């Protein structure tokens, strides 16, 4: 299927601008996580955090707010449309980012971060819902891959931006000021350029019975539920690395000076995989690509664990294998996303919210648990990767009734 719009609400906006805007909306989340990574140790010291591992909660509480809020944003945007809700959440994103700069203790910072996550959850739900409003099947997978290609530029650049801002302003609060500026820029851009993609006649009631019915539909749809759970499990790997990355390069490799550059390598591998996926998915299909990627993710994680166990940590080997792991990860995300969303077009907001909940709250809990086991070695994180890969493979096998690499998406697209 081509990637031409499949909705009567086709936007009066070019595809490149649409992809760029959607990617930047999703990137506000990545920016909120990654830009302050170089400042985590400084924040912990400034706010008198006793256990260095507790600084990871700056990421974890944000992800819980981000994840849980999407269960609410889904029904809200299905009821009131995409654009009005987006305007509100972007205003909140700016205000809560500024609130983080006012925090005088660690507890208040965590509260502001949780609120920021709630606002950011709305941007993620709406971005995914808008794509599903307009595209289905392999076309959606292609657009999401392009979105993720642009989106992944942010994890590459954000830590570098955060580090440079710290060098210029010498205060950790400046990193949150950058978030406010990014949110304001997206508020202006989307307000004037993004059309409403949810026709009024498609808006669904927000009463509890209708919301519960919509969520019941998701849980009763085997394909959707399976790939929602699979996404939640495998995305735990991403958050485990993000939460522990600064400690890995500081404590294991003793190279904090190259942290931002090493952090960019797996992000670049993800971006390459996303772009490659956009070029091949319409020919090969989501299942063939993502199923092979889950196997590849598990295999390279096992290889890395074996190397670490027998030979110890080596920065070059670690980065090479980690790039391969994340390249496989890049072929999983957009394809799992499109397969979960494909049969749920009528309740795209609810479906996007539940998918976002799984891939953030569930993943943050899993990734946060793995990262908190950090003991000065690579073993906890890499062992966690092996377990997550194998568990995801089991979920996929259950979802597909034991049959991998099928061309199930060749069936007629569901609206």
TrEMBL record:
Residue spans crossing the bilayer: 56-73, 85-104, 110-131, 143-161, 167-192, 224-243, 258-277, 289-311, 317-336, 348-371, 377-398
Ranges where the Major facilitator superfamily (MFS) profile domain occurs: 18-404
Pfam families: MFS_1 (PF07690)
PROSITE patterns documented for this protein: MFS
Keywords tagged on the record: Cell inner membrane, Cell membrane, Membrane, Transmembrane, Transmembrane helix, Transport
Keyword Transport listed: yes
Domain of life according to the entry: Bacteria
Membrane disposition: Multi-pass membrane protein
CDD domains assigned to the protein according to its UniProt record, in alphabetical order: MFS_MdfA_MDR_like
Alphabetical list of InterPro entries matching this protein: Efflux_drug-R_Bcr/CmlA, MFS, MFS_dom, MFS_Efflux_Transporters, MFS_trans_sf
Compartmental location: Cell inner membrane; Cell membrane
Family: Belongs to the major facilitator superfamily. Bcr/CmlA family.
Family matches, as NCBIfam families: efflux_Bcr_CflA
Protein name listed in UniProt: Bcr/CflA family efflux transporter
């Amino acid at each position: 299927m081509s990637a031409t719009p499949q909705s009567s609400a086709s936007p009066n906006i070019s595809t490149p601008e649409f992809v760029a805007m959607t990617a930047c909306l999703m990137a506000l989340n990545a920016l909120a996580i990654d830009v302050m990574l170089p400042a985590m140790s400084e924040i912990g010291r400034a706010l008198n955090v006793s256990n260095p591992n507790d600084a990871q909660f700056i990421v974890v509480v944000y992800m819980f707010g981000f994840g849980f809020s999407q269960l609410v944003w889904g029904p809200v945007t299905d009821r009131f449309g995409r654009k009005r809700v987006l305007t509100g959440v972007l205003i909140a994103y700016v205000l809560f980012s500024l609130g983080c700069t006012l925090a005088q203790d660690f507890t208040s910072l965590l509260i502001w971060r949780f609120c920021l996550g709630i606002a950011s959850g709305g941007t993620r739900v709406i971005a995914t819902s808008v794509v599903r409003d307009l595209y289905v099947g392999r076309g959606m997978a292609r657009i999401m891959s392009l979105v993720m290609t642009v989106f992944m530029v942010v994890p590459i650049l954000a830590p570098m931006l955060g580090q440079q801002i710290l060098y210029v302003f010498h205060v950790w609060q400046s990193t949150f000021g950058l978030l406010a500026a990014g949110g304001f820029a997206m508020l202006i851009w989307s307000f004037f350029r993004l059309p409403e993609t949810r026709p009024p006649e498609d808006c669904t009631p927000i009463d509890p019975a209708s919301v519960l019915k919509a969520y019941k539909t998701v849980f009763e749809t085997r394909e959707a539920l399976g790939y929602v759970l699979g996404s939640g499990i495998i995305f735990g790997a991403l958050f485990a690395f993000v939460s522990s990355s600064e400690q890995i390069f500081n404590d294991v490799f003793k190279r904090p000076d190259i942290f931002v550059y090493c952090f960019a390598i797996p992000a670049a591998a993800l971006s390459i995989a996303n772009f490659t996926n956009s070029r091949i998915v319409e020919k090969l299909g989501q299942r063939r690509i993502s199923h092979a990627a889950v196997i590849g993710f598990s295999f390279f994680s096992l290889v890395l664990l074996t190397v670490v166990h027998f030979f110890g940590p080596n920065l070059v080997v670690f980065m090479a294998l980690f790039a391969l792991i994340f390249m496989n990860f890049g072929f999983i995300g957009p394809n799992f996303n499109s397969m979960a969303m494909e049969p749920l077009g009528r309740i795209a907001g609810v479906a996007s919210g539940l998918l976002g909940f799984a891939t953030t709250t569930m993943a943050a809990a899993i990734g946060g648990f793995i990262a908190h086991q950090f003991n000065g070695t690579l073993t906890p994180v890499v062992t966690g990767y092996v377990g997550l890969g194998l568990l995801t493979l089991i979920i996929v096998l259950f979802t597909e009734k034991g049959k991998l690499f099928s061309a199930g998406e060749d069936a007629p697209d569901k609206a």
